[in-house]
Design a protein that fits this description.
By secondary structure, this protein is mainly α. It is built from eight helices and no strands. It is globular.
Length: about 200
């Protein structure tokens, strides 16, 4: 039987450490999600997270610098997923498919997304959506910039409200409505109740 070289042993050890760190991060993230079901984000301490996750303080700080850092990682994961969903289909010709992809990915990320919203990170999510949509555009093209801001705001609003309402509306229903809006615009005037009626 062939013996492993030193380089092969180091690679096995490196892979083992990488898997161990990934498992530690998963435990920490899960612990935070569970704790946020019981109390507000501001009340949770790092000690609470460590105890719930069953990891050492050193393991925690090897992966995260703060509890906000955990949410930042969730935010990065969500941003990457949505970016991938939006580039998978051409929204101008495959709007329905694009929305189905967004909704499918949202279902997978729903617990993290909901926790971010409940922890007051909604504005940060929206900022990331806008930044991602305008990544290849600076404000030198105002039409594209405003269109991207408008689109990102709409996507964020639909997805966040859907997640907060426990995704009760069927994916196909949302995809149909949103793709129609994207392709045809608003057909009927929208009456928003921004001011109280004095009737």
């Amino acid at each position: 039987m062939k013996q492993m070289t030193e380089l092969q042993k180091k690679n096995v050890l490196r892979q083992s450490n990488k898997e161990s760190n990934a498992l530690t991060r998963e435990c920490i993230e899960s612990a935070l999600v569970l704790l946020m079901k019981e109390q507000s984000f501001s009340e949770i301490t790092i000690t609470d997270i460590i105890r719930k996750a069953g990891v050492s303080r050193a393991s925690y700080y090897r992966n995260y610098s703060s509890k906000e850092d955990i949410l930042e990682k969730f935010l990065q994961k969500i941003t990457i997923e949505y970016s991938n969903a939006l580039t998978k289909y051409d929204p101008s010709t495959e709007s329905f498919e694009s929305w189905l992809e967004l909704l499918s990915r949202t279902r997978k990320l729903a617990p993290q997304f909901k926790r971010l919203l409940q922890a007051g990170f909604g504005e940060k999510i929206l900022d990331r959506f806008i930044a991602q949509c305008n990544k290849s555009n600076n404000e030198s093209n105002p039409d594209l910039f405003i269109t991207n801001c408008y689109t990102a705001g709409g996507i964020y609003s639909v997805l966040s409200q859907w997640v907060l309402s426990d995704m009760e509306i069927a994916d196909n229903t949302i995809a149909t409505i949103c793709s129609d809006l994207m392709m045809q615009g608003l057909k009927n005037p929208v009456k928003c109740a921004l001011v109280e009626d004095n009737d």
